[in-house]
Specification:
Layout lengths: L16 E3 L5 E3 L8 E6 L6 H19 L2 E6 L4 H10 L7 E2 L4 H6 L4 E3 L13 E3 L2 E5 L5 E6 L9 H14 L10
Length: about 180
């Protein structure tokens, strides 16, 4: 059993090294954004809410880039499903990573679900997959912001997140929630 508040603001997050749709690997330790790295864990190709959510992020990708934020979206899907999601959902502005291991998802505090057959998109859920999570990390890979969901619904809005990034950078606002114990 994993605690879902195991990640602490201002403390280094777990490593992340995942293959990318189209080739190469996305490695958190190699990211060097001006301000933040935005890591969006999505449920997978079977999820209609993820399609809309990542579509919104895809439309705002340039806005994040202008604010010094690099982006990756990752799931437990294999290469074929991730490739289908990137092309069918028209995520041309996003790096889509795949093969997130359940153990790695748990290290990030993500909730895990068991597949329950076909979704409303007519696509079979995997045996196991992670529920959504959205994280902003500093260039030193410490956690700045984190949100996890037990369900596909009510995720942090990317318009709000853009405003938060602007505020954080403008005011040099520290990561909060840093007190443990």
């Amino acid at each position: 059993m994993t605690s879902h508040n195991s990640l602490m603001p201002r403390v280094a997050v777990p490593s992340l090294d995942l293959p990318l749709v189209g080739g190469g690997n996305w490695v958190l330790a190699e990211q060097n954004p001006e301000n933040f790295t935005l890591i969006v864990f999505y449920r997978g190709r079977h999820c209609p809410v993820c399609s809309m959510y990542l579509g919104d992020l895809n439309r705002k990708a340039a806005d994040f880039a202008e604010r010094g934020v690099s982006i990756v979206a990752a799931s437990t899907d294999g290469e074929e499903r991730a490739t289908d999601a990137k092309s069918e959902w028209k995520l041309d502005n996003l790096k889509i990573a795949y093969d997130l291991r359940i153990e790695n998802a748990r290290e990030w505090g993500l909730y895990v679900s068991a597949g329950r057959g076909k979704t409303s998109m007519g696509i079979e859920e995997p045996d196991f997959f992670s529920e959504p999570g959205v994280f902003l990390t500093r260039p030193d890979r410490t956690l700045y912001y984190g949100a996890t969901q037990t369900m596909p619904f009510a995720r942090p809005g990317f318009a709000d997140l853009l405003k938060a990034v602007e505020f954080a950078v403008d005011k040099n606002y520290p990561a909060r929630g840093e007190v443990a114990g």
